What does this fold into?
Amino acid sequence: QQQVKQSPQSLIVQKGGISIINCAYENTAFDYFPWYQQFPGKGPALLIAIRPDVSEKKEGRFTISFNKSAKQFSLHIMDSQPGDSATYFCAATKGAGSYQLTFGKGTKLSVIP
Amino acid sequence: ETGVTQTPRHLVMGMTNKKSLKCEQHLGHNAMYWYKQSAKKPLELMFVYSLEERVENNSVPSRFSPECPNSSHLFLHLHTLQPEDSALYLCASSQDRKRDEQFFGPGTRLTVL
It folds into this structure.
């Protein structure tokens, strides 16, 4: 049973546009929600993360929006650039004591000039 | 070398071969992880070591055998693999007290013929 559902599977955005990737989770014990960015030939790299005590977190052009009641969170990339073209994974984990990160299936983002 | 390194980057092996994947972290972390990344599937956590002791084992077939000789090195020994084991194998590390912030290596692309 997939515990973190991510959509869309792929996304094409024009340069300067807004990229939006959505994730939904089932386990209410999750309390940390990171996003990872993976370029071809590289491992995933932590991009931005949020805890459920806030509804939004912004770092530069990247923003996470979190809706605890709906058990959904999303990544917004403002002013998308070709260099943002990568695969993005949402993830969730429960508690500081857990080693287990539960990942979504990933979204392949292509930003076209 | 910085971050998390993995060797080899690519490996092709027959089903009767025995090979090993190596991971080394240069971050001063004390927890290390093996993940399997297959196309269109979420990253799957295989093994976790903390302070050189295995702490999680997520129902991985015995043809995969991990070894952690010290906190900087992690191996994955492979024997009698199946074609469906072909995937990208990622190593990650973290501080044990910050298990939700994991740093990934570039992976080993494994092909089983």
Q: What stands out?
A: Chain A has a mean pLDDT of 93. Chain A touches chain B at residues 2, 4, 9, 32, 34, 36, 41-46, 49, 89, 93, 96-106 (CB under 8 Å).
